[in-house]
Amino acid sequence: MHLVIDGYNLIGAMTDLAGIDLEGIREELLTRLLAYKRLKKHRITVVFDGKRSGNLSRSSMNQKGIEVIFSRDGEEADQILKEMAKNKRQGITLVTSDRAVASFAEAHGAVTIPSEEFDSKLAYAGYSDMKGITDEDDEGYASTVKKGNPRRLSKEERKRLKRIKKL
After folding, report:
1. Cβ(95)–Cβ(118) under 8 Å?
2. Contact partners, residue 31, CB within 8 Å, separation at least 6
3. Which of 124, 157, 101 is CA-nearest to residue 32?
4. Is the full-model pTM beyond 0.90?
5. Torsion of the alpha carbons at 149, 155, 160 and 166, rounded to the nearest 10
6. Can you give the three-state secondary structure of the chain, one letter per residue?
7. What is the pLDDT along the chain (167 residues), one digit of tens a residue?
8. Buried b (16+ CB within 10 A) or exposed e, 3-40
9. Cα 86 from chain centroid?
10. Most exposed residue of 91, 104, 133, 148, measured as fewest CB within 10 angstroms of its CB?
């Protein structure tokens, strides 16, 4: 699974980062994503705005096994996220709470997850990493069997839930 994350959008959903400078917040996000990556083994790309950076081109780097992309001067991260959703379609799971980006991505076949929901997954991954719990150890608790109403969810909702279950 390839996770594409709207970096500053996810940072905005993380409530426990008060009093840290921007560089420190980005480093904390990458640390949490690294713990998540160790647990789930997903490919992760984080996209940040570089609108006022003065960079004439997009910059891309690999930090701790996580691809980090900064947009060029005058370009928003939303444009990059939309491009990735359009080009990779069903190959990505997009983490953002930006409605315009999420709607665009879903219209092109990508699955989206709100930043607040993914933040809780990150917190659990950090706890699991700290305790040394692997994904295989936790497999019995991760799945639940739906009982009751036999009505089937829409195809998009089933696809979304399937991706969330893999997180």
Report:
1. yes
2. 64
3. 124
4. no
5. 80
6. CEEEEEHHHHHHHCCCCCCCCHHHHHHHHHHHHHHHHHHHCCEEEEEECCCCCCCCCCEEEEECCEEEEECCCCCCHHHHHHHHHHHHHHHEEEECCCHHHHHHHHHCCCEEECHHHHHHHHHHHHHHHHHCCCCCCCHHHHCCCCCCCCCCCCHHHHHHHHHHHHC
7. 899 999 889 988 887 776 678 888 888 889 889 988 888 888 999 998 876 566 667 778 888 789 999 888 878 889 999 998 888 877 889 999 999 999 999 999 889 999 999 988 888 877 776 666 665 544 444 445 556 566 788 888 888 888 888 87
8. bbbbbbbbbebbeeeeeeeeeebbeebbebbbbbbebb
9. 17
10. 148
The candidate with the shortest Cα–Cα distance to 105, out of 41, 68, 97, is 97
Q: What are the tokens at 167?
A: 């997180």
For residue 138 the two structure tokens come to 């936790």
Number of residues assigned to the chain = 167
| Token pair 């040394």 in the structure block, residue | 132
